[in-house]
Amino acid sequence: MKPPPTSSSSSSSISTSVLTRKGRLSPYLFTFVAFIIFVTFLYGQDLGCILGQLDLDISPNPPPPPPYTTENYYKKLPFSIGETEKGCDVFSGKWVWDPLNRPLYQESECPYIQPQLTCQEHGRPDRDYQFWRWQPHGCSLPSFNASLMLETLRNKRMMFVGDSLNRGQYVSMVCLLHSLIPDNAKSMETIGSLTVFTAKDYNATIEFYWAPFLLESNSDDAIIHRVSDRVVRRGSINKHGKHWKGVDIMVFNTYLWWMTGLHFNILQGSFDDEVKEIVAVSTEDAYKMGMKSMLRWVRKNMDPNNTRLFFTSMSPSHQKSGDWGAEPNGNCYNQTEMITDPSYWGSDCRKSIMNVIGDVFGKSKFPITFLNITQLSLYRKDAHTSIYKKQWSPLTPQQIANPISYADCVHWCLPGLQDTWNELLFAKLFYP
């Protein structure tokens, strides 16, 4: 298979010309000017960030840059040991063929992968999707160091919160680490919405919490959550958030479950109310409400001096083959090569949602590390589970005759693409 082609601080100056009777500055004016210069120097970076937000542009074509965050003017974020190469955007790059160093683990060697993600076990005939490495333009990602990651997690909690896509990233992280831990010193347990992997010798946990909207919803059951009319309760993040307190490294995601059309249903009261007040708002307004609730919880419950917050951007699906110029009525089924157009943007990724993220995160006073995995994942129509997974219910003869009809073009095979998401998480954790 041939690899695809190559796809501050603010400064300010104050000049004054003041005429006085004796050609000297008034002592009051001198004091005022000195104060202005002092404040500008002291808060110049904050002013630059605020002014920069006026021109915030995260248009996804070309690929959207991470939103403005306060992390640039934190001298040292918790857990960081170095800096990314100057001027390097690790989210902008290309996929390179690397069969010598990929995959980072074998499917059969990680017992924690759910059967919905074990593509080889379920008959996928090719393995090419496992052999690609993400190469940023002009720099390189630091190699994933499992020993460093485990030692950093000693006596700490790391948690992934979101939907099944975030669960896939969580399982990938466990698979990247577990081989260094003896069998009798590790365990995984699921109770309701919470799954906990424990590295006993490190007194460390890596956890996943099911909350597809982050807020309370009618889809909160970790097993039975396939409802046709999704409803989210306004101002209800503490229903889940009480389980997140004390976490040292938090990785949020939420996107796909909000995408039910142009409008979304918001519950104004409680799910226990006999008569429920439900209002329909635009999907963008509903999503913005969720992002603001998340950041309010973070400000109240996380300490920027000791904890780290990550947010993983939207994970694309490849449901419409017409998006990449193929024959219509197809999807990711039988796709074994990636998309080579560096400017490709699928119809399933809403540009308006990226704008919401940029608007809300750009105003955050808490440092957020934005994992912008959207564009690099858009190329990977070859990496989905497709039909090679455990099916929740027996297939009908009609489905068997038409595999496109039941191909899963949302989730990703492991090992595979989501290991790269964690390499980026590793890079931004230690080299922000």
Automatic annotation (TrEMBL):
<dbReference type="Pfam" id="PF14416">
    <property type="entry name" value="PMR5N"/>
</dbReference>
<dbReference type="InterPro" id="IPR025846">
    <property type="entry name" value="TBL_N"/>
</dbReference>
<feature type="domain" description="Trichome birefringence-like N-terminal">
    <location>
        <begin position="87"/>
        <end position="140"/>
    </location>
</feature>
<dbReference type="InterPro" id="IPR029962">
    <property type="entry name" value="TBL"/>
</dbReference>
<dbReference type="GO" id="GO:0016413">
    <property type="term" value="F:O-acetyltransferase activity"/>
</dbReference>
<keyword id="KW-0472">Membrane</keyword>
<dbReference type="Pfam" id="PF13839">
    <property type="entry name" value="PC-Esterase"/>
</dbReference>
<dbReference type="GO" id="GO:0016020">
    <property type="term" value="C:membrane"/>
</dbReference>
<keyword id="KW-0735">Signal-anchor</keyword>
<protein>
    <recommendedName>
        <fullName>Trichome birefringence-like N-terminal domain-containing protein</fullName>
    </recommendedName>
</protein>
<feature type="domain" description="Trichome birefringence-like C-terminal">
    <location>
        <begin position="141"/>
        <end position="427"/>
    </location>
</feature>
<keyword id="KW-0812">Transmembrane</keyword>
<feature type="transmembrane region" description="Helical">
    <location>
        <begin position="25"/>
        <end position="44"/>
    </location>
</feature>
<dbReference type="GO" id="GO:0005794">
    <property type="term" value="C:Golgi apparatus"/>
</dbReference>
<dbReference type="InterPro" id="IPR026057">
    <property type="entry name" value="TBL_C"/>
</dbReference>
<comment type="similarity">
    <text>Belongs to the PC-esterase family. TBL subfamily.</text>
</comment>
<keyword id="KW-1133">Transmembrane helix</keyword>
